[in-house]
Amino acid sequence: MKVLVYCQHVLGVGHFFRTLEICRALAGHDIVLVSGGPQTPAALPRHVRRRQLPELAMDAAFQGLHSPAGACLDTVRSERRRRLHRIVAEEAPDIFLVELYPIGRRAFRFELDPLLAAIAAGDLPACKVVCSVRDILVEKKKAEAYDARAVRVLNESFDALLVHADPRLVRLEETFGPLAQVNIPVVYTGYVATRETPVADVAAWRQSRGIGPGERLVLASAGGGAVGFDLLRAVSRAMKRLQSDERVILQAFTGPFMPPDQTAALARLAGPTLRLARFSSEFGAWLQAADASVSMAGYNTCMNILATGAKALVYPFGQNREQGMRARRLAAHGTLGVLDTPDLAPDRLAGRLRAVFEWHPAPTDIDLDGAVQTAAWLENLVRQGGAA
Q1: CATH number of the domain at 202-357, out of 3.40.50.300, 3.30.930.10, 3.40.50.2000, 3.40.30.10?
Q2: Average pLDDT, stretch 119-124?
Q3: Which of 142, 204, 355, 364 is most deeply buried (CB count within 10 A of its CB)?
Q4: pLDDT tens digits, 14-28
């Protein structure tokens, strides 16, 4: 089958990497990834082709979209509409998988509404249209009207809603009240987690990265990096307190979207025991090897923590409820610890890290097979529909 996957990230990388994991699980099929967010340092699986739209991203004030290339916003929107319509016409997919819209990403209705209307009218090749959404939605302005419109679009233009969550932990109706009014199938797939091969010899792996016997390894990460500076700076400052007791190595990953001035400020702190990089394709291995992890509480990072069994503290992004709600649910399961802003003080953070060194996370039975189960559900949808 052919699946056209639409994913538009505007701030972090979580949406993109979660979608990429679903694409990876669809090996053996023709997968076309349509994306128009900032470029990310991720290699595509061999069976995935990428068709790029002109880039749009969140502005620095988190108030609206802008063109990273400095182009006129109306011009970019017009070109994106034209190009997206052409892609669907040329590719003629069996399934059009849309990440988040219409439950979120309202800023992109300018290109998606006309496309969905053209598919329904028969002006574009017929295909199944499926919405792919994470566990927790952020708050919306004029939420009642926003949600009512989302329900209408789902019922009129979509064939199914896939929720990438385990309902034993979080149910979508907790943050999307009118879910019961959605008339199409609503399917919980389980959480989407990267399934990496376990490191066979952790001691040898650590040594190959310059972590000697008897040294502690703290891993600090900021997700996409747009909002993680305060956390990485706090961990850097806490290292001096930790190193008064023993030798501790800090490996920090800024993420690809951290502003240059913030990256430069962290780089000035770097040295033999504080190492800085933007990104690692071996993030799962770093988690397995670390004595403690400190990170933001995004969907992907939390699922990576659960999949590896890492000893972890997370610091939720405070601008909306998403990360905090997820982090506290997971903390109640005994799988990680949550940092509040007062915990970023150097002495307090050092104390929390010392405790994590000796802590053993509780085993989890949270469903982390969301990518595989999403792929299986889509395959079944095509078989039932008699598509090629």
Answers
A1: 3.40.50.2000
A2: 96
A3: 364
A4: 788 899 999 999 999
Q: Which fold has domain 2-192+368-385?
A: Rossmann fold (3.40.50)
- Which residues of the chain does CATH 3.40.50.2000 include? 2-192+368-385, 202-357
CB 217 within 8 A of CB 252: no
Helix (H, G, I), strand (E, B) or coil at 30: strand
How far apart CA 244 and CA 229 sit, in angstroms, is 24
Q: Tens digits of per-residue pLDDT, 186-242?
A: 999 999 998 778 898 999 999 999 998 989 999 999 888 778 899 999 999 999 888
Token reading at 97: 């998988």
Question: Quick check: pTM over 0.85?
Answer: yes
Per the CB < 8 A criterion, the answer to whether 173 and 196 are in contact is no
Structure tokens at 138: 């952020």
Q: What is the distance of C-alpha 224 from the center of its chain? A: 9
By CB atoms closer than 10 A (0-12, 13-18, 19+), residue 386 is exposed
